[in-house]
Amino acid sequence: MEYQIELLSQAKYYKPHKHLALLAMITSLEMKDFTDNRLFYDDDFRLTFSSYFKKYSNGNDRDRPFNPYFHLRSLPFWELIPNTGKEKELQTTSSIGGPGELLSLVSHVEIQSEVLNALKNPEYLEIVKQRIIGILQKYHTNKERVFSNSEEAERYKSESVDRCYSDYLSSLISTNPCNENAIAETQSVNPQFSTIHIEHPLVGQISRELKNNLGKHIIITGHAGDGKTTIAIDILQRLKGLNTGISLSEPLLPREDLDDPRITILKDFSEREERADLSLIDELKSLNRRFLIISNTGTLLSFFREHAKNWDISPVQAESKILTAISAEGGFQELEFSGIEFMVFNLALMDNLVLAKAIFSKMIRTENWESCTACSKQRYCPIYQNVSILQTVQEQVVDRLFLIYRRLHEYGNRLTIRQITSHMAYLLSSGLNFDNVHENMVTLGSEYLFFNRMYGDDGKSIDNIASEMKAIVELRRQTFGELLNSKQEMNLWLRPVADTSIVVHSSVAKVFSKLRRVGMSSLAPDNSKISPDNARMQVRRLLFFFIQGESESKEVICAYLKSPNIMRWQAWQKDGARLDNAYKTRYANMIYHVIQEYFTGIKIPEGIGYQDGRLYITLSRKQNEVRQSAQIVIAEFDWSQSISLDIVRSTSAIGAGKSELALVGKGLLDGISLKLGLPFLDYVTQRHYGEIGELLKASYRERLERFKTQILGKTAYGKDEMMIVRLRNDNNFKRQRYAVKSQYLEVYDV
């Protein structure tokens, strides 16, 4: 057993949980005088573990005894006994998500009889206890790590009195969903959390509602990593009269009860005691307390559906109400059950990029990196190199970084705050910290520069550790910067090196020249470690962030992000933004063209204008391979007289405004509208200029179908007449109308 105890302390990234669980095991067995070798995951074990956790853990840990209880099965004396019928499932399960999953699989643990008998010896028992406590005390003293010897500890201490900020960045990097350090509950007790903390706009709004005697209960839902727990912590601090962003002395409890004002915060609805659900419903109905409930969607649906009769509705009605509330545009809707009112906020439907941008600005601010100026590793530290460059040209680079996140967001690839924060920490540090920086890095190339690392590679090959990060998976899928436009590519690779038509910021001028020189070669130069292909890829990445000149920047940004409209879209977000007439006229024609093609199923050549100025909805077959030159019209209207292209502005629950281009009906079509998101506008542009572009996504086809339904409701023909349109060889429509008049069929051209 002593060997296994020491072995657990030699993990590369040591955490104390398994040693804490062993100590809790010994205490539990000792209380039963070592007469029973069974160890249950019950209140006694959890409370014992928690008491040791408070004594020996530090700010980077979480009080989660179910994890070591399960994973200690790797030790020969710790045998998990499955529940009946769960034998095969337990055998194939490699990890668990929570105590509920543990209890569904595992009945108890059986401790090997040889170990149990050995622990009955008081002397051996004391040796084992002290061995475990010694390791835990060393970990607690050093706060972040266990050293293999005193020399290592002294060197670590002397090299940096104030630990490098990169060590904190490492705690933010989540390369997989199970990285506990990146979770809000762990960060909330870390003293350095304040260096990146930004109060969510909902905190003040919800705090005021909870303190209102006539206020409503609050439900916050969203994806894991959207910031639900951080909001709950900030609200708790506000209600206690504390400043938000200050680290907690201990993690938030599953249930926090305040008496003045009478408010209860349930930080994770899935951790509640389900057997107490009826009591909770009674509390909600009594209104003696205001409740803030933090929950994922599944748990919320399950709670209201299973207890529907207590709310005097059917399970189907309960589910429908919840789904309607959490699907509301803008991320907010009120909800009512049996006269009890709730305010439901869904963070997954709120734009989080403004918040993330503020976090990144705090991450790179000078105060966090002051110790680097006197650090002996500064001249060969890639982290400091990234931070220095970013601080030199911060506004431009940060704006362009968030254009990339915006492009992902608008195309339906939304990232959570945790995923973005993790990605930002990685692109700065490459996953390195103070101890990883060594003298072999004296010559710094481009392999650690942030414009490479944000894609999870060094400009040549993928970093396997980062390859599973959600942000990097999505970015690599987009293949940004594969090629710029032909003019830019020619200026880069076919003109002399001395050409000055492309100017980059001075902070990266040397790197740019070196990479460009390699990229212009057909073969890699003898002294180069990268291929011309890789060099060209890196140059395009560098140009996106650092090219100078307004018109040049716009060209590169739009080509790099494969989004011809993203710069205009960004400009529309400013207050008072308007469409210039030239853009409005040109795009109204281009949008008409795409919609007419979709409604009729006929491919219409570009550049032929509005044709007769009318838009037709026909009974076309959804088969592009079949030419349908003659079609029956079920609705028509004058496009220019009935549709206007305008900027419409909406506001989310947090007060964040968003401007989008929209088709707005007028006259005959007054009251209908169709928002045109960035992907649709890009598709229209690419289609107009003959680029292959992306196919029209299913979500936009659905929007167009709804738009068609709205139009039909206002313009459909009567049952006594019919029109047929035929696409002639000159690509104009010929119209013929058929009508029944006095028992005669009239046919005439229109």
Structure explained in plain terms:
- With 750 residues, the protein is of the alpha+beta class.
- It has five domains: 2-159; 197-349, Rossmann fold (3-Layer(aba) Sandwich), CATH 3.40.50; 353-469, no CATH class; 486-562, no CATH class; 581-749, no CATH class.
- Helices cover 44% and strands 14% of the residues.
- The strands form four sheets. Strands 5-6-7-4-9-8 form a six-stranded mixed beta sheet, sandwiched between helices.
- It is globular, with a radius of gyration of 32 Å.
Distance between the first and last residues' Cα: 94 Å
Q: How confident is the prediction overall: mean pLDDT?
A: 84
Query: The biggest beta sheet, please?
Result: 6 strands, mixed
Shape: globular
What spatial order of strands do you see in the largest sheet? 5-6-7-4-9-8
List keywords for this structure.
750 residues, alpha+beta, Rossmann fold, 6-stranded mixed beta sheet, 5-stranded antiparallel beta sheet, 31 helices, 17 strands, 14% strand
